[in-house]
Amino acid sequence: MIHTIWMKIAYFIILIISALFSVLYLGEFSVLLLCILIIIPVFLRISLLYIKYNLIVSVKTPVTYYHRNKPQSLQLVVKNKGILPVSKAMAFITCMSIADNERIPIVINFSVPARNVTIIDLMVTAAHCGLTEVKLKDLVIYDYIRLFSRKIPKSSPTEILTLPSGEELPYKINVPCSITDEESNVYSKLREGDDPSEIYRIREYRVGDMQKRIHWKLSSRTDTIWVKEYSFPIKQRAAIIIDYFSQEGEYVDLMDTALEAAYTISMAFIKQEIPFNIYWMSSTSGKLVWNEIHSMTDLNNCFTMLLSHPPIQPYDLLSHISDMHTLYATNAIYYCTPRFNTHDIDMIHTIFSQNHIYILTSSDYSKQNIQNEKIIFIRESNISKDLEILSSMEVNRE
């Protein structure tokens, strides 16, 4: 902007000198020079107007989602349909986190060739999970000698989704078996076993297969002998409840920590092939919803659904989870929350008295003098160490 002001001052000085020159020294050259200097601003303003209506600007996200505290790639795409290039353009972009309304300003200087598409890569690091609104606040184009400028019409805001980063744990989490029943009616989708009550898959006969596993009905309809493979029964089943609600101020960081803990545990369960469900309160339906997780794709899809909408206002979670009957059939429940309320936690233990309950909270409850190894304080910078207690939990029936 300062550079543009100096160019205007320089131009007016030259224009005054040229006017004096044409008065003091009569002749064709001096008059022609003055006319050219007068015509130049007219041409520049017309050219800017032409360029303005031939530029299409947008902000795009190359991927569906990003991960927290990791550089995220954005693209400012500028399409110039005209025959005149843009020698200088300046874009003012703001990234605003929906979680705490924190704004990150970005300023970019660039040029745009004629009849071409210019893509400028931007790197942004989101500090919070959830949605971040990317808005092109202003795009200003300048003429070739920086006398004039024009603003390009703004494009619609773009939202980027940031998921937790997670942390790969160097140990296994011990998930307890059922307290009341050691028999399982849940079977692995990744591993075969010897339980004849559930078929894992059907394959062609191989030498050495037992005759009793031959699928006679299917084999009779084809020219191939087919064999049934039975499933592997799973005695370890888990559920993760995410207490996701709107926070303000410092509590936004506590919510991020609780989400990181839930994501980290989920990664460990996937690695250990432990089936589990994730439960949370939907901000659109106002009801408790859940996703069955078997892979990282399932996990990222689940967190995409969870974080694609702003968190709801603080709510009574207990009144909703008590009606979710699938939770009662789960061996272990991991409740990830940024808040700590002794009354609510007592209620959870009462409701799920036949389940193993673990409270993972990012709220420091040390001043409340509570001694319970199943209430775990999670710190942002020490998640792996804080969760290590889950590797030494008793896995047998109580």
Structure description:
It is built from 8 helices and 18 strands. A hairpin with a 5-residue loop joins β4 (86-97) and β5. The protein folds into 4 domains: 2-41; 55-163, Immunoglobulins (Immunoglobulin-like, Sandwich); 187-234, no CATH class; 238-391, Rossmann fold (3-Layer(aba) Sandwich), CATH 3.40.50. The protein has 398 residues and is α/β, with parallel strands linked by helices. Strands 2, 4, 5, 7, 8 and 9 form a 6-stranded mixed β-sheet that branches.
CA radius of gyration = 32 Å
Low-confidence blocks of residues: 179-197
CATH architecture classification name of the largest domain: 3-Layer(aba) Sandwich
Kindly report the average pLDDT value.
81
- Share of residues in helices: 25-40%
CATH topology heading of the largest domain = Rossmann fold
Instruction: Please provide the ordered H/E string of secondary-structure elements.
Output: HHEEEEEEEEEEEHEEHEEHHEHEEH
Distance between the termini: 72 Å
Quickly count the domains.
Answer: 4
Tell me the number of strands.
18
Number of helices: 8
Class per helix and strand makeup: alpha/beta
- How does the major sheet shape up? 6 strands, mixed
Shape designation = elongated
Strand content: 25-35%
Name of the top-level CATH class of the largest domain: Alpha Beta
Keywords:
398 residues, alpha/beta, Immunoglobulin-like, 4 domains, 6-stranded mixed β-sheet, 18 strands
Quick rundown:
The chain has helices spanning 2-24, 28-52, 216-221, 251-271, 296-307, 318-321, 342-351, 383-386; strands spanning 55-60, 66-67, 71-80, 86-97, 103-112, 116-125, 130-142, 149-151, 158-163, 186-193, 195-204, 226-234, 238-242, 276-281, 288-293, 332-337, 356-361, 375-377. It is an alpha/beta fold and 398 residues long.
